[in-house]
Every structure is written in C-alpha cells, then in structure tokens.
Amino acid sequence: MFKALRVPERLFRLVMWLVSLAFAGFLVGLGGNLVADLPKVETQITVEDFVADKAALQQARTGQQQLDRRSTELREQREQAQLALQAATNAYQSARSAYGNWLATRTATTDPQQDPQVIQRTRELDTLKTRERQAQAAVEALDKALLDTRQARLASEATESALLADAQEAWRSAMRAQELRVFGLRLALTLPLLVFL
Length: 197
Fold this sequence. Notes:
Layout: H1 2-37, H2 54-109, H3 115-196
Helix pairs in contact: 1-3, 2-3
C-alpha cells in the first residue's frame, strides 16, 4: 500500500523538477536577453564624438582622400613618363651608335665633303639628347609631385591623429560612465530576479 503512494509522489517530484528546470531556463533566457539588450539602451559613442574641432577632422579626412586620388593619378602619369623616357633613351643610344659607326667610316675615308653631314648628324644627336633630358625632367617632376603628395598625406594623418589623441581622455571617461550606467541598469533589473529566487 505504501508503494502505491510513493509512485505519485515520485512522479510529482519529477514533474516539479522539470517545471523548476523550465522556469530556470526561462529566467536565464530572460536575464540573458535583458543583459544582452542593455547596451542598446545607450547610443554607441566613438572618439570622433569628442573631437573639439570636427570640421578640421573632416577636412583632414577629405584631404587624405583627395591626396590618395592624386597620388594614384601621379603614379599612372609617372609610369607613362618613364616609358617615354625609356623610348627617348633608346632612340638616343641607337642614333649615337649609328653616328659612331658613321663617324668611324668617315674618319677612315677622310672625305672633306662629308663635314656638313657631320654637323647635321651631331645636331640630330643633340636634339635626341634634348628630348631624352626633357623626358627625364618630366619623370623627375612627377617624382617630386609624388613626394609632395606623400608628405601632405603624412601631415594630414598627423593632424587627424592629434585631433583624435586630444579626444581620447574625454572618450574614455564617457565610456566608463556609460559602462557604469549599463551595469547599474543590469543590476537593477537582475537583482529583483535574484532576490525573488
């Protein structure tokens, strides 16, 4: 007779354990959702929010983007100028080699009638050398423009870094205050649940 009474008691305990586990799972899920969603109560703050001169920061970033585009354009122009320089150098070297061979032949024949041709060919070589030098000057000008662009980009990055560094301390303080507020809200919401249990 006592065994028959124990079966419903055991079944009742088992059901109570299952209800307790379900209730605990519900509370854990509810607490997890409360804790997970609380940071969304506060707006996310960034260092940029604490920069004193936002216009200067925006100007520095816009300037960096423009300098990056300019740098890309200059690199492409430099590649073209380098190809032009190589072509001018090759033309000069080829003409100089041909002139050297022709001059050696002329010296061997010592024909005074070829003196005007010597002068003409020398002028042609001078013209080719001038074109080569102009191409070299174009490459050097582009190298200087690239260097100026890089230096301006570095100066702009330094300005941005200085503005952000000045805002770091205020941002850290605000982050600490925000974390404390979120912690307080979490504690206010979860403490009654913990006391209730």
